[in-house]
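Long-time lurker, first post. I've been practising inverse folding by hand and with some scripts of my own, and I keep getting stuck on stretches where the structure tokens seem ambiguous. Below is the full token string for one chain I'm working on. Before anyone asks, I'm not after the true native sequence, just a reasonable design that respects the backbone. If someone could post their per-position residues I'd love to compare against what I wrote down in my notebook.
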């Protein structure tokens, strides 16, 4: 085998592995949160960015093999940003044979008119986009709206809420829309952004740049994103641990009386599953834990 053949085989092998991993993670998220059910008509929001292309591609692949039957329809909102290459998405979607709708709505001019020069325009822009997408979902009879947010978006949002919002919350994998009429799902919730970026590159998706509007990404989000990436480089596994924590919440060990009835808490004679090691500080080093266990036995 020539060196070129060996390199291309290795590239193919890596691509298959990545595709399988992403498919498995999306399949698991769908099952864990019951995101897609028999007969669903799933509207996939396609911005032209790497994440939404990957989302559509993986959902198509699951659709081809899943026992649950569901439909996919791709929707792109053409927000009339200057230089938006209108032909790219229709050409791509026609080539892969996915039904689609392109919705033209000039949110760009609205945002430019209402937001003073130099201010971040993303929140108003996203709000207008969301409204348009919900309306289209109704018109198309979609039962689910799939968005391309991934694990790193979820962690970023968690820290944004923690640092600036005074709330312990993030983007949920499944939610009911503000108007109560749509179910929004995030099937990429378990996928890492770097895997999606690598996948988009391997698949050669025709990416449309996201900064056509000329707006900077929200500065706070940028800072939090960089902080997370630094942690990922410096402390491998930290992002995974934080993400696990989001799936392992103990209201009795937080401070929200609306989630846990602290007022009526009483001591009894039975062991108490929500109990604590009282005044001990938490330790996370396995050898110390083991030592404690061995002295107890
Ligand atoms: S970067 Fe531009 S298009 Fe994207 S959300 Fe912000 S304002 Fe809207």
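-- Answer (accepted) --
I ran through it position by position. Result:
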């Amino acid at each position: 085998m020539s060196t070129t053949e060996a390199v291309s085989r290795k590239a193919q092998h890596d691509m298959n592995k990545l595709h399988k991993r992403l498919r498995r993670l999306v399949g698991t998220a769908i099952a864990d949160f019951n995101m897609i059910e028999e007969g669903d008509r799933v509207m996939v929001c396609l911005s032209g960015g790497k994440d939404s292309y990957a989302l559509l591609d993986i959902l198509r692949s699951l659709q081809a093999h899943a026992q649950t039957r569901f439909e996919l329809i791709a929707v792109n909102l053409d927000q009339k940003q200057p230089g938006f290459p209108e032909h790219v998405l229709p050409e791509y979607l026609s080539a892969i044979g996915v039904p689609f709708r392109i919705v033209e709505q000039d949110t760009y001019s609205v945002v430019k008119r209402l937001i003073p020069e130099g201010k971040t325009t993303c929140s108003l822009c996203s709000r207008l986009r969301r409204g348009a997408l919900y309306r289209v979902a109704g018109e198309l009879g979609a039962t689910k709206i799939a968005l391309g947010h991934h694990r790193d978006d979820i962690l970023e949002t968690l820290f944004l809420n923690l640092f600036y919002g005074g709330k312990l919350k993030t983007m949920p994998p499944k939610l009911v829309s503000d108007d109560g009429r749509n179910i929004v799902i995030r099937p990429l919730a378990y996928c890492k952004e770097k895997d999606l970026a690598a996948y988009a590159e391997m698949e050669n998706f025709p990416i449309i740049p996201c900064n056509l509007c000329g707006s900077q990404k929200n500065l706070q989000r940028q800072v939090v994103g960089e902080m997370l990436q630094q942690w990922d480089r410096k402390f491998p596994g930290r992002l995974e641990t934080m993400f696990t924590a989001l799936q392992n919440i103990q209201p009795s060990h937080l401070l929200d009386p609306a989630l846990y009835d602290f007022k009526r808490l009483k001591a009894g004679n039975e062991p108490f599953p929500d109990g604590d090691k009282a005044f001990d500080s938490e330790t996370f080093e396995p050898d110390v834990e083991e030592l404690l266990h061995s002295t107890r036995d």
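A couple of notes from the structure itself: Residues 84 and 212 are 7 Å apart (CA to CA). The chain has one domain: 3-215. Happy to go over any region you disagree with.
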